[in-house]
Amino acid sequence: MPELPEVETIRRSLHPLVVGRRVAAVEVRRGDLRRPLDEGFPRQLVGRLVLSTARRAKYLLFELENGRSWIVHFGMSGRLLHRRANTRVGEAAGKHDHVVVGLDDNTELVFRDPRRFGLMLVDDARSCPLFAGIGPEPFDRGTFNGAYLKGLGRRTRRSIKDVLMDQRVVAGLGNIYVNEILFACRLRPRRRLAGLTRSQCDQVTEACRSVLREAIEHKGSSISDFLDGIGRRGGYQFKHEVYDRAGDACRRCGTSIKSVLVGGRSSFYCPVCQR
Ligand SMILES: [Zn+2]
User: Using CA atoms, how far apart are residues 84 and 193, in angstroms rounded to an integer?
Assistant: First the structure.
């Protein structure tokens, strides 16, 4: 599923193409996404000017002139592709193209989602219930820092992997990046948060920022066919140190990467580099 770096990559690819454009038409081909599309969805979007784009956790936001936002979540397999409208016959009728949003420059944004775990709606981002329980953004040093993690550690027996995967603790991380972050700060996935020192908690939050920043620079990880808004693959999958590398040699020390289940998810680590 697209995690923070992939959603941010999609946002950056679409931003210059949509800002200042007005929504000309909305076609809903199939509205039964993870959450059924609101009946009024097309009406809420048509005629609206896109002022800017933003990201919150794994959600992409198109900020509209009326203070509301078109909010998109990509679920497991969702994609948003920008293209010229009706450039190729047949292209417009893709089987998994569930929503087409036409812009006033004869381009369109196509929401393609084979598994239909994505969702979209128009709402006020400041009061949208989807964001109510989501934790701080990892790039926000003021709220996501070692003191915050250390404080959580006093109240939980959970593993560091489990805690970082929890959207209520920190927004936007998933299995790929939590594995990479734990390699970057040299901690095994099963280590308990409660057992970490304040300095280790600082290192965890800094590792979150450095891994995510680098992943965004490489335009995300193209696993399960991730593409950005104009169809480009990401490059960060070639930089993964541990994710999906069980049995391969650690690039730092040469030891075989191990795989264990933590919270039902595959976790990968180097038994020498990570303690
Ligand atoms: Zn190693």
Answer: 49
Q: How many angstroms does the Cα of residue 180 sit away from the middle of ligand 1? A: 12
Q: pLDDT tens, 74-122? A: 998 899 999 999 765 445 568 889 999 999 999 999 999 988 889 999 9
CB 216 within 8 A of CB 223: no
Q: Please tell me the distance between residue 21's alpha carbon and the centre of ligand 1 in angstroms.
A: 49
Is pTM beyond 0.70 here? yes
The predicted structure's pLDDT at residue 10: 97
CB under 8 Å to 186, separation ≥6 — which residues? 273, 274, 275
| Residue 224 confidence class, pLDDT cut points 50, 70, 90 | confident
Residue from 176, 175, 164 nearest 138 by CA:
164
Among candidate residues 128, 132, 9, 108, the one with its CA nearest the CA of residue 60: 9
Pair 196, 150: CB distance under 8 Å: yes
Gap between the Cα atoms of 209 and 142, Å rounded: 13
Report CA(245)–ligand 1 centroid distance (Å).
12
Q: CB atoms < 10 A from the CB of 16, how many?
A: 9
Tell me if 199 sits within 8 A of 186, measured CB to CB. no
Distance CA 270, CA 27 (A): 49
